[in-house]
Design goal:
The chain is α+β, with helices and mostly antiparallel strands. Helix 2 runs antiparallel to helix 3 and helix 2 packs across helix 4. It catalyses: a beta-lactam + H2O = a substituted beta-amino acid. It is an enzyme of class 3 (hydrolase).
Length: 304
């Protein structure tokens, strides 16, 4: 009887110890969730956020299923469909495409400033669309692959609230409610597929991420909360009253995906919500990647 009582006592102590080990992380997570909630609550805009731990799958979510206009962030799914159709053999990324004058629009990019529209590879148009957010290159690629095909791909990926309905810089279409749309949950799902190498192939997913990493970091609001040494694969978007950003933060010890979206922004609203959210998230994931289960910081390679 004493032997069994002793075993029971040992098991009880181990159980209590295990609870203590997990409770510290639970408290930290609750604190982080409250910080994120408070930042979002202070903003006059409608704000949605999904942040996913790409190691464990643990997720922070605020208004994850609210539909937001996407502005230039929608260019990520467009690029993905270009790669999908190339994979299917409909064309090659090295094929040369003549940019139509009908696709020339203002806003971001360089093609609009050229006197003569160039002939360039489909791959180069994709790079221009992402890294310089070139709206003319985007419109040319939409003509190439079609909105119907992009949206069919998105449904197949499970991103059912993500929809491409118009070309870039089309105020009349926007006025009719023909916006390019997504949700934080859909965007985070797409980013996870890319990070895990599950879109077409590991090589294709990696190549798309490499293009996203070339985007000018100065255009990222999330970057304000992340050290310069940490790479980010991202695409932001801005419209009147709207701000979006999809990002994979390649923190070596604990990579994470973030989709943050704002709409109904107040005119003159200070640009600080996304930046503050990013700082809180970075501090959380850095600690997850650099601390033992007791909260002691050690060389991440030593953490079991």
């Amino acid at each position: 009887m004493k032997k069994f009582s002793l075993i029971g006592l040992v098991l009880l102590l181990l159980s209590i110890n295990a609870m203590a080990q997990t409770s510290a992380h639970k408290v930290l997570r609750q604190q982080t969730e409250k910080q994120l909630h408070d930042i979002i609550s202070r903003s006059p805009a409608v704000t949605g956020l999904v942040a996913v731990d790409l190691t464990s799958g643990d997720t922070f979510a605020f208004n994850p299923d609210v539909v937001f206009p996407q502005a230039s962030a929608i260019k990520i799914p467009i690029l993905m469909n270009v790669y999908q159709q190339a994979h299917e053999g409909r064309f090659s990324l090295t094929d040369i495409r003549k940019v139509s004058p009908a696709d020339v629009v203002g806003g971001t990019g360089v093609l609009k400033d050229l006197k003569t529209m160039p002939s360039t590879s489909i791959y180069d148009l994709g790079v221009l669309m992402i890294t310089l957010s070139d709206n003319t290159a985007t419109n040319s690629l939409i003509d190439l692959v079609s909105m119907k095909e992009i949206n069919a791909m998105l449904r197949g990926l499970g991103a059912k609230q993500t929809l491409v309905q118009r070309k870039m810089i089309n105020a009349a279409a926007s006025g009719r409610g023909e916006e390019n749309l997504s949700t934080p949950a859909d965007a985070a799902r797409i980013l996870q597929l890319l990070y895990k190498g599950e879109f077409i192939s590991k090589a294709t997913s990696k190549e798309i991420i490499s293009i996203l990493k070339r985007t000018d970091r100065q255009t990222s609001r999330l970057a304000a909360g992340i050290p310069d040494a940490v790479p980010i694969a991202f695409k932001p978007g801005v419209l009147n009253g709207v701000s979006t950003e999809w990002a994979i933060v390649l923190l070596p010890e604990r990579p994470y995906a973030v989709a943050v979206m704002e709409s109904y922004k107040v005119k003159g609203q200070a640009e600080e919500t996304v930046e503050q959210l990013s700082e809180v998230l970075y501090q959380y994931f850095w600690r997850m990647g650099n601390a033992t289960r007791y909260g002691t910081y050690v060389d991440p390679k030593l953490i079991k």
